[in-house]
């Protein structure tokens, strides 16, 4: 019997798929009875020790190693960074969705990378200005990478940022997640959805969370596409902590507990007036604040 170490890439009802850390070969494993008795099961991203008999094609999970962190939507362990895929056109960028994703990443204390895909579609001066405005809004605090799969623009830069890390990838349907992953590793051959002309949205091509190994030493969780995000489990008065551009202005607010809405002498609102803080970001802050107030402090 040989003991090895691997990473859980997918969970089934009674078995898990793991990828061996050294050989990068996939193996189906069953759980030892002790895990069932303790009602413990691994999740995608877990590092595990497994045993396998020589010449066997399946193994047994022996140990689930300690987790560095756990995300709950999607449920995945040991994530190093979050990657958001968006587009300026086809589909049009939704700034609220982008900002909700960033709030979630900040709440989980995750590094976040924003990839603006399909820049080859931006033909007019107005469309180029929209791209530039988007980059100016976010690039001071996040890594923003304009990408074109069809013209092979910045694909290698994306590889550099993902190399050696476990990333989780998300974005609205139709932004080209599968196409981008296929361009990063041609052996994946992921199914690609078509954009619906009527709805200006893509058809969902991913229906479950799965950790994919990419051949340049990277792992990524390709999560189901989404058209909406709900943020829960955050007290509205602490939401300001997840809008990182507020940090440098907050010490100058007239009140220590200022939430940057109706208070006088608010340095954040003054920065907004002088265009030092993005109006779209501030509007997202107001919208999410109200949403959290109405929903209450429910986790999920």
Describe this protein with a few key phrases:
Ribonucleotide Reductase Protein R1, domain 1; alpha/beta; five-stranded mixed β-barrel; globular; 300 residues; OB fold (Dihydrolipoamide Acetyltransferase, E2P); Rossmann fold
Describe the structure.
The longest helix is centred in the last third of the chain and has 17 residues, at 279-295. Helix 2 (95-107) crosses helix 7. The protein has helices at residues 33-37, 95-107, 125-138, 155-162, 177-184, 267-273, 279-295, and strands at 2-11, 15-20, 26-31, 47-52, 58-64, 70-72, 75-77, 81-87, 111-117, 143-146, 166-170, 195-196, 201-202, 210-214, 218-222. It is globular. The chain has three domains: 2-66, Nucleic acid-binding proteins (OB fold (Dihydrolipoamide Acetyltransferase, E2P), Beta Barrel); 71-222, P-loop containing nucleotide triphosphate hydrolases (Rossmann fold, 3-Layer(aba) Sandwich); 236-295, Ribonucleotide Reductase Protein R1, domain 1 (Orthogonal Bundle), CATH 1.10.40. A six-stranded mixed sheet has the order 10-9-8-11-15-14, sandwiched between helices. It has a five-stranded mixed beta barrel with strand order 1-2-3-5-4. Mean pLDDT is 89; it is low at 194-207. With 300 residues, it is α/β, with parallel strands linked by helices. The protein starts with a strand and ends in a 5-residue tail after the last helix. The protein contains seven helices and 15 strands.
């Amino acid at each position: 019997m040989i003991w090895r170490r691997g990473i859980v890439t997918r969970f089934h009802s009674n078995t898990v798929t793991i990828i061996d850390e050294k050989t990068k070969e996939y193996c189906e494993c069953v759980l030892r009875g002790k895990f069932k008795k303790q009602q413990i099961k691994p999740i995608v991203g877990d590092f595990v020790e497994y045993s396998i008999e020589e010449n066997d094609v399946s193994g047994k999970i022996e140990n689930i190693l300690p987790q560095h962190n756990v995300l709950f939507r999607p449920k995945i362990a040991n994530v190093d960074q979050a990657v958001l895929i968006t587009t300026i056109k086809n589909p049009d960028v939704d700034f609220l969705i982008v900002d909700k994703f960033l709030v979630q990443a900040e709440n989980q204390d995750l590094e976040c990378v924003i990839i603006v895909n399909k820049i080859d579609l931006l033909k007019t001066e107005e469309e180029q200005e929209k791209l530039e405005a988007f980059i100016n809004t976010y690039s001071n605090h996040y890594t923003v990478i304009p990408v074109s799969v069809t013209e092979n623009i910045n694909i290698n830069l994306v590889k550099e940022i993902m190399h050696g890390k476990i990333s989780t990838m998300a974005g609205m349907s139709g932004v080209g997640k599968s196409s981008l992953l296929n361009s990063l590793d041609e052996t994946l051959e992921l199914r690609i959805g078509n954009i619906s002309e009527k709805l200006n949205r893509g058809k969902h091509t991913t229906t479950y969370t799965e950790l994919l190994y990419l051949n340049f030493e990277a792992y990524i969780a390709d999560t189901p596409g989404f058209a909406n995000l709900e943020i829960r489990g955050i007290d509205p008065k602490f939401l300001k902590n997840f809008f990182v551009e507020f940090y440098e202005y907050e010490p100058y607010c007239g009140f220590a507990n200022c939430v940057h809405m109706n208070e006088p002498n608010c340095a954040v609102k003054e920065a907004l007036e002088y265009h030092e803080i993005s109006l779209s970001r501030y509007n997202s802050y107001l919208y999410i604040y109200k949403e959290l107030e109405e929903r209450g402090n429910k986790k999920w």
